[in-house]
Amino acid sequence: MAAPDSAEQQQALELARRSVGQYFLGEQQPPDWSSLPSWLHEWLSVFVTLHIDESLRGCVGSLQPRRSLAEDIWFNARAAAFEDPRFKPLSAEEWPQTMLSLSVLLPSEALITENETELLQQLRPEVHGVTVVQEHRRATFLPEVWSHFSEPQDFLIALRQKAGLPPQFSAKAQYYRYATIKIPSTRLFSQ
């Protein structure tokens, strides 16, 4: 997928805004998908991230495409606002203060590694998102999460801990990298 232009980015953000706004108004019906621009019908996945005053307020997404981008934006926006288990549901009072951003995931690539050094050599901080999978445990960090860590090893330790795995490298774990198309932050509430 080519990076969406500014008008297409606004269409995606507006879809997320409408999803949350209609929820507050008690409207559950999704839009007529057929009326949306063709690029939103592509089979892609997205993470919807919400912040209030630079603090995470919700983040929900799909690692693998399972529906159109429009549908993924719609349902993940609602889930980020009202179903992220780390937070209470977004309140009407918080709504106007909340910032929204989207990260469209490009296809992931399995990494072949035998140790932490080889793994780090295949990753570019702030360019690659990373997913770790071991047995039934899985976690991901989007590319922008690298900025929260001063050392790349700390990023990987935190990722493994998020998945409920030991902090040290294990050859039993499988790693995947992916890039994203970042749609910049804007207010969730739009008049």
From TrEMBL:
Cross-referenced InterPro entries: AMMECR1 (IPR023473), AMMECR1_dom_sf (IPR036071), AMMECR1_domain (IPR002733), AMMECR1_N (IPR027485), AmmeMemoSam_A (IPR027623)
PROSITE patterns tied to this protein: AMMECR1
Q: Where is the AMMECR1 domain?
A: 7-191
Kindly provide the name given to this protein in its UniProt entry: Uncharacterized protein (TIGR00296 family)/AmmeMemoRadiSam system protein A
The family database entries (NCBIfam families) matched by this protein are listed as: AmmeMemoSam_A (TIGR04335)
Q: Which SUPFAM superfamilies match?
A: AMMECR1-like
Xref: PANTHER family: AMME SYNDROME CANDIDATE GENE 1 PROTEIN, AMMECR1 HOMOLOG
Q: Which Gene3D superfamilies match?
A: Hypothetical protein ph0010, domain 1, Hypothetical protein ph0010, domain 2
An example Pfam family from this entry, by short name, is AMMECR1
